[in-house]
Design a protein that fits this description.
alpha/beta; Rossmann fold
Length: 202
């Protein structure tokens, strides 16, 4: 059994929240980092030790992982996994939320800026993200074998992981709430996947 402990990174700085940042390497909110220290400690106490730790190429996942490790009193090597990065928004990176509707080819999802099949110019759809994340999870499970993987990732990628584990479409998975610093648990066993918990908060 491979157990995945998926954590969404901490909240980003306020100005970045005004536009579509996707794969842009935006900074975390320093005020929230300071005020949410009890949440980091509670989250750290929930995680398994030892575990294989993963972050994405974006600094907000690394900084979040480092804060969790400090709260846990551990210093574990952070391995970069590009396959768990956020949705690629292509030419729409940096676009203000108010300007997005004019660009859409299909209605936006109620709980995501884009529809599941919407592909930004030069980017990927959420359906693409599900395939990418699913491939990465299967490889990580095969490489890890019996053990625990703690992965600090992104809201879209975690929803994609849920879709893969549950065998559901991307559109359905976008209905799941995945808050900053929340924990989602998935398990990959000999007979398939199981969703243990989604959006557990601390």
């Amino acid at each position: 059994m491979t157990r995945f402990w998926l954590i969404r990174h901490a909240i980003v700085e306020e100005n970045a929240r005004a536009y579509l940042y996707g794969r842009m390497d935006v900074a975390l909110c320093e005020t929230s980092l300071a005020t949410q220290r009890p949440s980091y400690a509670a989250l750290a106490a929930r995680l398994p030790h030892p575990a294989h730790w993963i972050v994405t190429p974006l600094s907000r996942t690394r900084r979040t992982a480092e804060a969790i490790q400090r709260a846990a009193g551990i210093d574990v090597t952070l391995h970069v996994e590009p396959g768990l990065i956020e949705q690629d928004l292509g030419d729409w990176h940096g676009l203000a939320h108010a300007d997005l509707p004019a660009q859409l080819r299909e209605p936006a999802h109620a709980f995501w800026p884009l529809g599941a099949a919407e592909t930004p110019p030069g980017g990927e759809s959420m359906e693409d993200v599900v395939r990418r994340v699913g491939t990465s999870l299967e490889r990580l499970a095969a490489e890890t074998g019996q053990g625990d993987v703690v992965a600090v990732s992104h809201g879209g990628a975690i929803r994609a992981a849920i879709a893969h584990a549950a065998g559901m479409g991307a559109r359905s998975a976008l209905h799941f709430s995945v808050q900053n610093l929340s924990l989602t648990q998935l398990e990959r066993g000999p007979v398939g996947w199981r969703v243990v918990a989604v959006n557990e908060m601390f």
